[in-house]
Amino acid sequence: MPRLNERKRLAAACSAALFLTACGGGGGGSAPQDPATKITQHTATVSVGENSSSTFNVNGSIKSVSVDRPAEPISVDASGSALAIDVGSLINEQTARYNIRHSVNGAPHETILTIEGVNTSAAATVAQANAMTTTPVSQLAFYDTQRLSNILLEIQYLAGQINESQKVATQASIQDSIDQAAQDTKALKDALTATLAAYRAGQVGEQSLAQKVASMNGGIEGVSDIGKIVLDTFSTTLNELNVALPADLTLKYDEQIERYTRFKDSRLGAYDANGSWIFTPEYDWLNAALTLSQGQ
User: Fold this and answer.
1) Is 119 exposed, middle or buried (0-12, 13-18, 19+ CB in 10 A)?
2) How far apart are alpha carbons 58 and 125 in whole angstroms?
3) What are the pLDDT digits (tens) for 43-102?
4) pLDDT the model gives residue 4
5) Which of 26, 36, 253, 264 is 20 to 30 Å from 6 by CA-CA measure?
6) How is 44-61 classified by DSSP, letter by letter?
7) pLDDT tens digits for 208-221?
8) By C-alpha distance, which of 128, 146, 157 is closest to 182?
9) How far apart are CA 209 and CA 195, in angstroms?
10) C-alpha pair distances (Å), 106 with each of 39, 100, 248
């Protein structure tokens, strides 16, 4: 009988122990987290041009800085609440990311800082490559020529020089020539698109990108005669209107309007004080026909 009572006492003790453990009793539970140890998190992004410096400031004082994503030309140095950023020479875009631990009135904070190193020397090349790869060749190289040809066809039609079917046939022929130019430059455009993506991913440098831009530029120049042939078609009409164009207008890429044009020629006009292209009085009619200023 005593042995049975002993077993009952042991069973009761085990049950009590299990109950206390499940309920967090018995003094074994975790203490609540001190609110002061909770870390307040922030994110920020700054862009810094190559071969230049900048300063990023945090609230409070910096306790430590660790790198999450290194980029060799980008370096930092912390002092007080300031993080000095230096970016060296770049051959493409680079991105670094740092983890900054700082204290604000005794409370811990963490800022994840992304630093974008901007390859300023390649800005114009990147902009041109972007325009070349995102704009259809018909707009990139023949926008002005096609717009002007449609206006001159309408003048010929209204003057009774051509009928409706002739106007439509000429427009279709011009479009076919432009479509063929787009096809002829497709391989160059595809190659440039791939190189631009590789440049942005940091896989190739600006020299490789510039070479592909030059190749695409050469391809556009190779089909530029299409525009000249189209304009020559209307030489008689332009002479009759006493607004004949110079015969040797060259198709060139214009950074301001991000496409090619042959009408920003010093014999036709000039930039005004606001940076807008204005045609001379002799070619004033082109101001209404063509839009050659930024944002137009």
Assistant:
1) buried
2) 35
3) 999 999 999 999 999 999 999 999 999 998 999 999 999 999 999 999 988 999 999 999
4) 42
5) 26
6) EEEEEETTEEEEEE-SSE
7) 999 999 999 999 99
8) 146
9) 6
10) 11, 15, 74
